[in-house]
Amino acid sequence: MEAAVDRVDGESISRLLRGWRARVDARTLPELRGVFPRPGRRLSQKHVARMTGVSEGWYRALEAGRRQDFSESFLLRVAQALRLSEAETLTLFLAVCGRRPPESGRDRSDLPRGVKALLEQQVSYPAYLSDVAWNVVAANSLMGEWFPWVTRPQPNLMRWALLHPEAREQMLDWEDSCARIYLAMLRVASNSNPGNEELRTLVRDILEADADCRRIWAEEYDVVEHRDGHDFRLRLPYHGNAEIRVTTHVLLPIQRPDLRFVFITPADGWAGV
């Protein structure tokens, strides 16, 4: 039964890889200049293996759909050799290893037009965009009025919420409603992205800097993927330090799955935003 599943899965990605390879004219590839004998029109498996730095047998196993321990760097080299588009590279990664390709050092300010417009046009509630390490890459004007820290250089939600003294004053029930949940989110993120140096540094810096966070981290085993739909209480200067209850909503822009679109709304019908 297992072999049948492998064969079906393999046929799908095999057909795609053969088709992608067949459309590449080997004569146009600078990587194959000087190769003897000189390549003709057809890009062969041997050519792709040469361009990706592996044996012909290793590449042949990929194209045959045989499940191997193919590394991300190898799959990225295959995508480059076959001149794959972003969507084709995504398909290759999902078919072979079941995960998305790593982000390519994209400029954080390079936001899709629609996502940026949606953020700027959100005038009723505070809203912001954060990346996988909770760096705030953009925020609307109301978010800056509620939480002035997002206008400071290199704002980071986790560093502010877990390390800044004002967070403990403004986020009521700080330990239970904030610290335990955010640390549980960091636990999920650090295990989901073990190769992300920025996330590792973020966790290390927080635990080294704060004794309460170290204690919670050591005594808790909870994991939380996101804070969507979570209610919490705030006391902000923007609201004259009156207590308010709000709910967070987290959306993932399809054009930038590495970002979170977060906005904050009144809880229980509160209309004082």
UniProtKB/TrEMBL annotation:
<dbReference type="InterPro" id="IPR041413">
    <property type="entry name" value="MLTR_LBD"/>
</dbReference>
<dbReference type="InterPro" id="IPR010982">
    <property type="entry name" value="Lambda_DNA-bd_dom_sf"/>
</dbReference>
<dbReference type="InterPro" id="IPR001387">
    <property type="entry name" value="Cro/C1-type_HTH"/>
</dbReference>
<dbReference type="Pfam" id="PF13560">
    <property type="entry name" value="HTH_31"/>
</dbReference>
<protein>
    <submittedName>
        <fullName>Transcriptional regulator with XRE-family HTH domain</fullName>
    </submittedName>
</protein>
<dbReference type="GO" id="GO:0003677">
    <property type="term" value="F:DNA binding"/>
</dbReference>
<feature type="domain" description="HTH cro/C1-type">
    <location>
        <begin position="41"/>
        <end position="90"/>
    </location>
</feature>
<dbReference type="Pfam" id="PF17765">
    <property type="entry name" value="MLTR_LBD"/>
</dbReference>
